[in-house]
Design brief:
3 helices, alpha+beta, about 80 residues, about 20% strand, four-stranded mixed beta sheet, globular
Length: about 80
């Protein structure tokens, strides 16, 4: 079985990051969590390692990346939960 990886900001600062984390925990899904501190000089480059849009949250599974699709969109967990 392949591993799910959820890339998020700090859960106490980013409600968009908290939402898929809570849903995945509630569903009992096995996943790895990568937390990236937001609002630091390195945040953007760290997020872009996983997210083409530069936004979190991001769900990675094999060659699939689910995250907000556009540069001008807000972080939106609906792309993961929908």
């Amino acid at each position: 079985m392949t591993q799910l990886i959820l890339v998020i900001g700090k859960k106490n600062y980013s409600s968009w990051s908290l939402r898929p984390w809570l849903a995945m925990k509630q569903l009992g899904l096995n996943f790895n969590e990568i937390r990236i501190p937001l609002y630091t000089p390195e945040s953007s480059s760290q997020i872009r390692q996983y997210s083409p849009s530069g936004k979190v949250p991001v769900l990675l599974h094999d060659n699939l990346t689910l995250n907000p699709p556009r540069e001008d969109s807000d972080g939106d967990s609906r792309h993961i939960l929908g």
